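Something for you to look into today, if you have time. What I am after is a single protein written out in full by you. I want to see for myself how the chain folds. Could you add the entry underneath, on a fresh line?
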Amino acid sequence: MPRPPARVLTAFGIRGSTAERLGGGQGRAWTAGGLILKPVDDAVETLWVAEVLSGLAEDGFRINRPVPAAAGEWVVEGWSAWEALAGEHDTAGRWPDVLAVGTRLNAALSGLPRPAFLDARTHAWAVGDRAAWDEEPADPVHDALRPLLERLRTHVRPDDGRGQVIHGDLAGNVLFAPGLAPGVIDFTPYWRPPLFCLAVVVVDALLWHGAPPTLTAAMPSVEDRASLLARAAIYRLITSDRLAADMTPSARHSYLGTSVLDHERVLGVLDR
């Protein structure tokens, strides 16, 4: 990913600094002058997120707000700028705190209208999300994932609640710092029941963060809990399936093998 050019840094009020690549994520974010700079894939989505987060009331959480350029625009030559939040990605033993942040964030986002750009998204995560909610066929490209999908679907109920704007990728995007409220970064909007945000956190924690199976009990005790968890796992399964399609054969084989083992672990919890 190319470095943001000097004229972009200048437009966002950054002078005398060289952008440095940030680790984590997809390796596409840069830091300079105390700001985070990101390339913009979808200008409509970025502008919507910037407008929402610039005025979002913080209640028990911090949010990384967008930073406008000197001329007032949110996007300059395909780049956006965001506040850098203090904190570390240290979720060990803090999953109930992450779930509490999700609940508070859901409340802050409630009442927003459904953004139209969601219908135009075609990336792997959008495909996985729609497949999990029966809005398009959940048809894995790779045969190794089909049995997992069929087992997950046995836990799905027809209706899991009314939708609202949620953060669809919260688990790895909460920062903790002493004396500060948890910080939420990389807001990724989806339109789903608010408890789905929490279900994705639980499933991600089980899949990739070594969380104990008992974490499922930290979700609100609702009739649709198992169904929401199954939908969250389908979301991640189909996303992994689509991402694997673009890998080299050797990388794909390893990635799919790991995905099978990870989802078997989640199914072991759901099947109890």
